[in-house]
Amino acid sequence: MESGQATQAASGMAPRLYHRAYEILAAQIGDGTLAPGMRLTESSVAEQFGISRAPARRALAELERNGFVTKSSGRGYSVQGAPSANKAVPKPATDEDMRLVSRPSWERIYGEVEDEVIGRISFANWRVNEAELARYYGVSRTVARDVIGRLQSRGLLRKDERSRWYAPALTPEHVGELYELRSILEPIALAKAVPHVPPSFLSQMRAHLEDAVANAEAIEGPVLDSLEEEMHVKLLGFCGNRTLMQAITLPQSLLIAHRFLYRWTPRLFKTEPFLPEHLEVVAHLDAGDAAKAAAALERHLKVSGGRALARVDVIRRDFRAESLPYLEQLDGS
What is the 3-state composition of the chain as percent helix, strand, coil, each rounded to the nearest 5? Predict the structure, then answer.
């Protein structure tokens, strides 16, 4: 494993924009697309990938550290070619990798900021500084404000008594409150959704769940994420009540946190317990029994809080967060 990747894996950090840019550039140097002697600058890398200068700067620093480039006598870096044989060269970039430039500015940094926040709320409350966020990523205050607004709309940020943004820690009390709300609101939404759910959607849900159960020991985080979203977002979305779905958004911030937890915690269960619980809900829906489906969903949510806390505990023990200027740990958390 290349040393930058090793450091990242050991620290438990989520994949970041700079690392994606690093891998693509390293692959292009390795296959000769970027020939020795060519020059790379922060601005050119930022423009190529549609990212800000902060991750572009880090990508270039990683390339230098691993022997792909050296600082030139003028501005920027000079390509040195593929490093020695003991350095792993990433796989060539795919078309999907290169599609970093087609999104609005806030979307280009949002995923990274969300991961940084989620990784930290496992063990503390954090204040988010809009000005520092803009400065760190080299974006406008408007873009930083859009990112913060998205975090707030997804239930990850709140305002304190002085109207400052903060991310509340996933304490047992907070997680318990969120799951209590979910166990009340989601069964109601499901009951309203039942008359409007297409049979083809239920068939698809069942097929996905049965395939996951059959491959339970090999299943990975992204699949678990998609199954959770299918049950708790897409299915409930058929309820047709926008106000109810907005009320569900806050407690469902845990679904967003789960994406990080599934990705960065070791497997805690041989078979993820929610799989048969989701299947029970779908079985009742297939049988046309909305009341039993809603009751099964409520039971599932009432037992899920403890499992979420078990994952949070792993993150609290093992996650090592680097210092970021736009995130300040609050005293007493």
Answer: 60, 5, 30
